[in-house]
Each structure stands twice: as structure tokens, then as C-alpha cells.
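User: Okay, second chain of the day. Same drill as before: sequence in, C-alpha cells out.
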Amino acid sequence: MFMAPAHPPKGSSLATWLGYLEALHPSAIDMGLERVQQVAHRLDLHTEALKIVVGGTNGKGSTCAMLESILLAAGYRVGLYTSPHLVTFNERARLNGEIVDDATLVGQFERIEAARQGVSLTYFEFTTLAVMALFASQTLDVWVLEVGLGGRLDAVNIVDADCSIVTSVDLDHTDWLGDTREKIGFEKAHIYRAGRPAICSDPAPPESLLRYAGEVGADLWLFGRDFNYSGDRQQWAFAGRQQRRNALAYPALRGANQLLNASAALAALESLRDRLAVPQQAVRQGLLQASLPGRFQILPGQPTIILDVAHNPHAAAVLEKNLGNMGFHPYTYAVFGMLADKDIEGVLRHMAGRVDHWFIGGLPGARGVSGQALEARVRQSLQAYDPDGAKNIQVSGFVNVEKAYQAAFGKANPDDRIVVFGSFLTVAEALRVIGRA
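Assistant: Same drill. C-alpha cells below.
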């Protein structure tokens, strides 16, 4: 029988509160809006701010980061909510570009705890309400909110968005969202609203998404039809329905798909331009200043270290392409850890031919895979996908990511590269190790 934990005493730390929230609900994920709406109705979440909701399988974090950066450069007051975090929970909530401090978050947690009146909330539902309550208490011009999982039943979807973006639709979280792009597209499309701009930057959107947008009467903006981009080695240009933005510098965020993400952000801003004027200089400055740790993040120094949270086949395919576009490195070493409920073999299929030596790190928790078990799956996949090449590829298993990273760093020469990927947890642990070095 599930027993709710004791309420944190007054003056408790953020860490104490987060531990409480992790144990508050019988399951970590419990899809549905009824409970979170019940508590939301007791809170004053009214705001005059424009609300932009961003969903998608991959690319939503980058799109949110670019929107925030551009809007701040244009002089707007912006609240940004993203998930998950890499190192500290505070990364999930930003006010005007600044990460929210512990005391402010704890104050909002206490407010949600009082308002819920015994209604059981998951960690994500509780913290989402807390951040929304914080934003509503501020004088903001724009909220940028990233969907956590799917769309239809995600807590963020209690917001009546003024503009919604679906960046991409691919296979991930199949236990919750379905095992086809059509099923997943249906879930993600539910962030669209009647008569409101509905941006989709997936070049081949599933029919279910198109059908839902039509059924609810959303103003659907499709990549390739309503907006597009072009570019050369020096600069790129955006073309929307009525607006062109030429001579743009490439985004500071690296990778093959970042122009697609940037185009989605600019399409959203064009769709809202009657209420949200954004000058060209703000777009240029915002794209150059946008940052997002763990998305094809290349650290300074030698050997070259690349951090990427790629944890599904679509993201792994993009990572493999990005690695292929880099300059020559004699050897590529992978520090790799994944969760058990992810498509491990699908990710390895894309990366099998790109890595010379795999350093496998076990991940903790009920969803984690031990280094030994993951090592066996990597060996099996390499043999299946690249039987000739597998003979020359080394695979080493370690108890955790820290040990795997240290071994890879010790092996690499200055002109080699180390790519850390497979999970937010994998990148986060590598960042902790690097931070202590």
C-alpha cells in the first residue's frame, strides 16, 4: 500500500523538497490532466503574457533556447521552463535569462503544497505548477514552455497556448505515446489550439498531426510550405509566409538540425508579430547568444570532448551526421550510458560505424542499465550492424559513467575526440567529473 511521505518542515532546503516530491506519488509518470487541473484552478495562474508551448521528440530544448535568447535581445521579459535538467533542478526555470534561486523555488513549492489539498501529484506535475505559479507572479511578456512528455496528457498542456510548436515526431517514450509516428504525432498535436498558430518543423509530419490540426481549426504552419530556410557557408536566410530575414549568422548552437529549429522559432515569432515585434538585430544577436548545454556541445581544449544527450534513434542519427561533419580526428572514443526503456539497439545502429572504442558506463536507478549488461548489448549490436568493422572496435564496461569517462580521457591523445552520449544522466555525470578536474 502506498504511503505518502511526511510534509517537509518549514525552512527545508530545495534538496529536501525535491526528495519529498520524488516520493509523493505512487508512480513517476502518471499521464492525465485531471489532477493537475484540479490544483491549477485553486491557484491564480492568470497572466497577460503571451504563451509559447514547444513539443517534439527532438529539438524542442534548442528551439526554446533560441526563442528565449531572441526575445531577451528584443527587450522582452521572458520566463523559460524546460526539462529535464542536467546538473541542478534550478536549470528548469529561468526569469529574464537568470536561473531561479533555491529560495524562490521553495516558496512556490510551499504554495503548491498548500493548494493541492491532498491531491496526489507527480514530481513533474508539482514542479510544473510551481514554475507556472512563479511566472504568473511576475510581470512577464512571454512564457516559453517546453512539453515534458508527449503533449495531450502532459501537465504543460493545461496552458492555453497563443502559439504551439512541434519540432519533430519520431519514436521515443513508446510505452506511453505509442509505437508508431502516427500515434506519437497524434499525442504531440494536442498542444495545438483552435484559431492559434500551430508550427510544425518536421519535414515529413505524420498524417495524424495534420488531421488533428485541421479538426480543431488550428492555423497550421508547415516547414517547406509556410516557412523555409536557405544558406551558404557564410550566412543563412529565413522565409515565412510574409516575412523574410536575410543575412543571418549561423546559430551558436551547433549541429545539422539547428537551422530547422531556428526556422521554427522564427516562424512562431512571425505568427505573433502583431503582438510581439522582434527587430532583425534581435534575431541576429539572439541566435548568436543562445546556449544549451549537452546538445552537441563541444568543450574547449584537447582532446576534443563532445557532449550530446542523444537518447533515441532520431537524435543518434543527427549526432552521427554532426560527427561526420567535423574535421579529422584519428580516433573517436564513446562514453556511453543509456536507460533500459530506451531503444538501445536503434541508437547503436546509427553510431556503430563512427566509434573506435566504446567506454560503457552503468546508470543508476530502476531504469538504469549496468555497465556489464550494456557492454554485452553493444558488442552484440556491433556484430550485427558491422560484422567486419566490429573486429577492430574495442568495447570496455565500467560500473558508472565517471569510471568510463576517466578511462576514455586517459586513453585519448590530444588530437582524438571523446563523445559522451546516450542519456541526460550520462552527460550530467560527465559534466560533474569534468567540473572536478
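The longest strand covers residues 50-55.

User: Thanks, on to the next one.
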